[in-house]
Task: structure prediction
Amino acid sequence: MNEQTELWKQIARTGSVVWPQVAANRPERGVAFHSQRGALAWSPQTGETRRLLPEGVGSGFGLLSPDGEWFYFFKDTKGNEKGHYVRFRYDGTGELESLTPDFAPYSSSLTPFPLPIVSLSASGNRIAFIFVDSDGYHLCSVDIAADGRLGAPKILHEGKALLRGPVLSADGAVCVVCTNERTGKQQYDLLALDSGGDELARWKGGGATSLETTAFSPIPGDYRLLCTTDESGVKRPMLWDVAQAESELLITEETLPGEVVPLCWSPSAKGILLCRSLDAAHELGIWEAGKLTRLQHPTGTITYFGGLGATLSNDGVASVLFSRSQTPRQLMAFSATGEPKVLLSGGEAPQGTTVRSVTFPSSDGVPVQGWLATPEGTGPFPTVIEVHGGPHGVTNQSFGMGAPYLENGYAYLSVNYRGSTTFGREFLQKIWGDVGHWELEDIIAAHAFLVRENIADPKRIAITGGSYGGYLTLLALGKCPDLWVAGVAIVAIANNPLTYEDSSPLLQGIMKASFGGTPTDNPELWERSSPHTYAANITAPILVIQGLNDTRCPRRQMEAYEAHLRELGKDIEVLWFDAGHGVGNTDQAIGFMEHTLAFLTTAFSLGVSS
Result:
């Protein structure tokens, strides 16, 4: 098979876009992030793009100021997610300017995960962001003068509790942040602060309820906040009027079943763009004057985080990031009556893959959803099960999903295990305090489904995943070794206690919330749920692909795991790359996939002979 016929490599090299933004007061200026080219300055009127940042400086996420003069982002070193918030002029002149020049380097997320941690007011007069250090979580704001000069950074709120999803009102006078002070879990209440950090209001969800921010009204002086609540058991869109301390549920489950979240306001603040998730597929609608209007669009995936990734015009046109397994992510315009329109794409693209949604029961009868693709011919096939990261993420349709495996004659199934988002509160929270158990039960159920349906050859099933999915891969290989012929773990956690010791304070806080305490607080759970505990059980060969500068899945814990397996005589290979929590570039990613396919070819051939 030569390069020209390997479609999966063409798919890997295909560009896609994410986080497009247009300057509110200068619509000829925009930014977007391209999967191959990085951060781009983009003209929405002509479609032209150029590199935005200086050579050698990269960013996968940032915010464009409303006046179009500045681009704000987090700058780290080789993907280690430790550094400073900085800004750079849109026209490419001048130098990077730190927002916190006198601060020691701090931890922050390079992408809006799991909720955005930076916000810019609609008027452009203030930016607020969360950073984490050994003292805990800090909500910081910096004033921006009319002439663009930066004020001194000001700490609005801080403590050991998790802080996520800050949003500023249009005039910058109010900041609302998600905090787990009450719960200690990844379950949030909302705290509203004024520009000096004084508390204005709190909204406590109570019980198991979690609240999350989206966006303030774009009208200065209007302090209505779009947010979500899962009080009913699934996420629903809410309005919280911070000034009046009043809340309103926008749409009930009877009106629109499934999980429904608000994405953004229209400029007039009369319309609200909603996104419904049902079986990991999305549907858009506009809520205005108590009425829901469905938008016309194909079945596929809408990419969003909080109030990022979508806009809504006053005349009912939604601009969103849309993708399917057949087509890459691109910015598209949808309305209730007009034809869909591509606003920004990553370039020419080949045809992707075809997948279908499947559902199967887990060990306790709870339905688990996944995406299945099979090669030509009749089964059973050698099969790859893929599990996503997070754990609080979800696998939706994505361009070319499973392509390398399908092209080599393997079946492919991705699994949205317990802990995944968009399937309701109970599904998401089931893993809290019992890390690794129910996720693995769902993965075992996926294995059984594939064998029962004669899709997979039971002697030739491999498991793979990245980040938390890499953790689950290693855990599955050790806890149920008879199920697997091979495993491929990417940027993985192999030793929970060591990972906690070496992780950034940002990730330590999230791990503590998931486990219900530190390794010292609950050592039995930390050991019971750790892949290294089951190393002696492993029978399948393992391939690990790991970043040298990763602060989410640090280097030392993987080195210890590799050494331990080698002492036990296990078959493990670790490939290191010089970046953080993600493979550095496309060519390197393709090289790793080539290595993975060769590894699987050998493993599957041994499975046939066993």
In short: The radius of gyration is 23 Å. The mean pLDDT is 93.
